[in-house]
Amino acid sequence: MKYKTLKIMETRLLRELDVQPTNVVIENALGESYLAFNELIEIISNNEFSLTYEWKYYNDGKSCLCKVLNKKKTVFWISIWDKFFKVGFYFTEKTRLGIVELDIENSIKEDFKNSKNIGKLIPLTINMKTKEQIEDLLKIIEYKKKLK
């Protein structure tokens, strides 16, 4: 199984307002997981996906997050943690059923099924550590891009 529950203390990084999320800063934070992060960024930036991304410090969460966009629509978010990164999507009640139909790891579907709504939105969060996880992630990205 590619998605083991992390049994480590989760520590969110990039919490300092004056620290810019450069490749060096991100690589130091992620360690070996940087390989997966770097490959993901390369894939989503290519012509097939044509996504853009922007880093910004958000005062409400007191950390720097990466917003990944398809034109002006937010597709997902990336947050940097100690030795891994999290990818977060938000779906509505109407669009949540499409996740169940995707050919992705059952553990992702189970976690999503059990996630608690944030207002009208349903979060899907994946802790990313390895390149092997990217395949499932890309299927979710493609689904999210097709939504109106």
Order of helices and strands: HHEEEEHHEH
Placed side by side, the strands forming the largest sheet appear as 1-2-3-4-5
Shape: globular
What is the CATH top level name? Alpha Beta
Fraction of residues in H or I helices: 25-40%
State the major sheet.
5 strands, antiparallel
According to CATH, the fold-level topology is Yope Regulator, Chain: A
First and last CA, distance? 32 Å
Give the tally of β-strands. 5
Taken as a percent bin, the fraction of beta residues is 25-35%
The DSSP helix count reads 5
Low-pLDDT stretches are none
Find the structural class using helix and strand composition.
alpha+beta
